[in-house]
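ok so heres the complex, four chains, lmk if somethin looks off
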Amino acid sequence: MARPRQFDEQDVVARATDLFWRRGYHATSVRDLGEELELTPSSMYRTFKDKHTLFLRALDHYRATESTQAEERLGAGDRPSRDALRDWLLWLVTCPTDDGAARGCLVVNTATELGTTDPEVSRRTEAAFEVTRAALRSLLHEGRDRGELPATLDVDAAVELLFTTVLGLRVRERAGHDLDRLTTTVDTALRALGA
Amino acid sequence: MARPRQFDEQDVVARATDLFWRRGYHATSVRDLGEELELTPSSMYRTFKDKHTLFLRALDHYRATESTQAEERLGAGDRPSRDALRDWLLWLVTCPTDDGAARGCLVVNTATELGTTDPEVSRRTEAAFEVTRAALRSLLHEGRDRGELPATLDVDAAVELLFTTVLGLRVRERAGHDLDRLTTTVDTALRALGA
DNA sequence: CTAGTATGGGAACGATCGCTCCACAAGTTG
DNA sequence: CAACTTGTGGAGCGATCGTTCCCATACTAG
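and the predicted structre for the whole thing:
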């Protein structure tokens, strides 16, 4: 209808996500965002309303990319479920360190930074958490049904422990803990699953 | 030598700790601190140099009180080590919710908010983490030596898993997850310890 | 009581915060 | 081409940021 945009909205959201991921919500200013996204304030505010809304978009983008990718990696497989789980856990702890900076998981960082103070944020972090748990649950069920995991395994309980371990791993990765110890943790968690 | 202070430094640090704990570093302004601590800027800056240094004091205070209390609770006991561990884990997840607000653990919140960007902060969070691990390690050794835990238990590996689980529990508590599920997690973690 | 010294109160500094506004640019529509 | 619509650039809004400075205050030492 009129003048076309000079930027790709998805790309801009992706870069905003990256910045929020590395620095957190409060430590990221709109000017930082403007520079990183090569966007003037007017374009940014016209497109995204305000910083808070852009942050929600970033959370949604993260869920749609990183989280979804994680779920796919976990689900994909005719491999033994234990191997799939191990690869997935190690990937969680290894992958995000592509630029050398330890940034953990945006959802975990956000949940701890903002706590329960922001309902719109909380809804999104909880939704992301629930997706992870569901993926773990289905993998464990599958593994148990295929006889790769003990028939006596209490899946729901195991999911809680695994999920909690994942959060802990994310924190440790953000804190820069070395990979060897995180790998030990992963293997110990897996051993705890089997009899 | 001169005019005496109208405030107790320890008390002020304690209240600053509380505020940083609830809101995080970046979201807590000097003016917020001034109100909460009933301290004018001049007194605050004269006493603590600047916001960052006050925050380091808060971290140290947290380690000297909350963390130390936690370590004592874990160590204290002629009770079976498994019971001691269970009580401790549940206390970690229950206690901090005294004013209704879920605030998690200051060390975990700080580690995820600031990552590895601030060396002075990182040193303190890592030290706090290491104290927790050491306490867990000695408890597990004791339990194994007393025959309450399997003689085959790989203590170091178990410490990694338990420690990671603790971090995950702290995140979940901050995120407002309900106590029942956290309790399930604790019990599952303990079951994973024994054979 | 006087001199000396550290503190408390609070105005205000420059910088930055999130955000708005408006003139101009760049397209579409007739 | 003119009329219209939407996007861009950037100055700049009021508020707040972390911090400093000055002065009256309240204490100790002699």
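quick notes: Residues 80 and 148 of chain B are 7 Å apart (CA to CA). thats all i got rn
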